[in-house]
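Incident review: delayed structure delivery

Summary: a single-chain prediction request sat in the queue longer than the usual turnaround. Root cause was a stuck worker, restarted by the on-call engineer. No data loss occurred. The affected request and its eventual output are reproduced below so the record is complete for anyone auditing the incident later.

Affected input:
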Amino acid sequence: MPKHEFLTPKAIANRIKAKGLQKLRWYCQMCQKQCRDENGFQCHIRSESHQRQMGLFSESPEMYMQGYSKEFLDDFIKLLSRRWGTKRVHANLVYQEYISDRHHLHMNATQWETLTDFVKYLGKQGICAVDETSKGWFIAWIDNSPKALARQEAILKKERQEQLDEEQSRRMIDEQVERATKEAAASGMLEKLSENYTELKREAEEEKITLNISATISSTPASTITASSNSSTTPTSTSATPSLSLQKQTQKKSLSALIKESNIQPHKPQPPKEKEQRKLTAMEQIILEETERKKSRLKSHIVTLLNETIYHSKIVSYV
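Output delivered after worker restart:
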């Protein structure tokens, strides 16, 4: 029976049917021909062209089998490395991506009968990292190229250098802490630093809780205190220290009331200031610097507002 012409409805229908993927068992790799059903495949294997190709295959079957297997392996690994890299992915997902090409090399022409056998082969050869789960086989490509090995070596070298730097910095910090501890012990500051603070607890339920809050009020205003690199010591004032006891027998006074009372008495004679001076700690210096910085920022903001007010008043008067 002669074939239908190219633009006849039957020829167009045949091309539409053959456009998608067909069943693997009806594909002949030697002839590279896809059949749509069992009848067409049986007709093909009895054809003269197929018999001639099978004669060539029978002369050296191992050569054809190894060639097809190598081509299938190379194409599969190329797709895996370019599409997913070294990520862990389902093997069937990669295979579905591979067979989406209509002219791909089919697995029935290779030495592997199933995809599971092929995945196990990849794991044995060290090409991929293979693991089996309840969802199926997962593979991850192992990049053994010289560039990848050099990149991994550089990463390991960087990590080792970071570890060495961290150990060195930790060693320097330990030495500084030890040196500071020795200096504090020599200057008698270690006992002050090693004070133990306990929680507010009462030993017996019948015992009354008494809170003594003492506030030291300096005669000099806080604005005159400056923290600079040249002056590292500040005088300590020993002015009157009012105490507040929370008891039923005594009158309750707030800390702000005590401060006001102390400020009302400017002419009260004060005891002589002690000559002992103490060094400012790093935290106190930071707090003083921050306070001065806020004050200067506030002053500049006030000046800006005044200038704007004067400018607007001039504009209004001019208008």
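Verification: The two ends are 106 Å apart (CA to CA).
Action items: add queue-age alerting; document worker restart procedure.
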